[in-house]
Amino acid sequence: MRLFEAIIEANHKAVAGDTNAGLRPAEFAEELPVAALSCIDARLNPLLPEVLGIPEEQFIWLRNAGNIITSPLSSTMRSLALACAVKGGKEIAVIGHSDCLVCKTNAMQLIERFKNIGVERHLLPDNVNEFFGMFASERQNVIKACDIIRSSPLIGAGIPVHGLLLDITNGKLEWLVDGYQKFATMSDKWNDVVRSAGETVDKLKSLSDFNIGEMKFPETKIGETVVKAEDWLSNTLEGMQIHQQEQSPSNEPPKPKPIQARIVNAAGEILEIAEKHWPKPGVQSHRPAAPPRIPMPPPLRPKPIPKRGR
10 Å Cβ neighbour count for 126? Predict the structure, then answer.
């Protein structure tokens, strides 16, 4: 039994009421310490690392809001990498918890809460969800974090990455991501690559015994091959000449193609319609009668103003 298999078994027994359940850390000295990432929720303070059964000196505790990892090279990944490289972490655990307040906060609520503390919307990133790593499921958030850690170049392939979900009401752990299974899968793939490479090397080794003296070539003289090639070329050219003579153009005009025939027919119909309806020279067309002319009113002339005596 490996470390986290024993942790989950002891935890479930303790939650069920077994007072004798517990972990014996001395039996797993080679798999300790554990580097763990959890949320900043204060309700986790009395639960970790007690629910794991690991002593505090063997528990490298990293925390951020929502135990979120945004990318394989983020600041949280840098801390996890240093926890393994400098502090000697043998295994990694991402520990989410139930009733996470970050999970319950959506983007609009987050923007409003930033506004309440004096941070206006234009000061925040355009994509708030992506920048803060907002999530809607505690389980999916833990699984996503484990996938990012596993894909990070900062974490060695031999370090198992586990995903746990802690029920803060009773302290029960749910094992979401089994790092041992993931590690076994990667090992199998690596072994397949090594095995395939070995087979390729074996095939290349067989070429080292190659001896050109053992090769047999057809007993054909070079001159005979050239003569045969010339005969084939001349026969081909003659066939092409005969083919061209048979297909020489005749004196008869070529028949119009279907599309050409359609164009000719359409042009003829247009000419026929034009001859019927187009006015011919010398024939006066009937024009409508001109409207009657309205006589203009007489011009207005100014009347002379009589002069008055003084």
Answer: 8
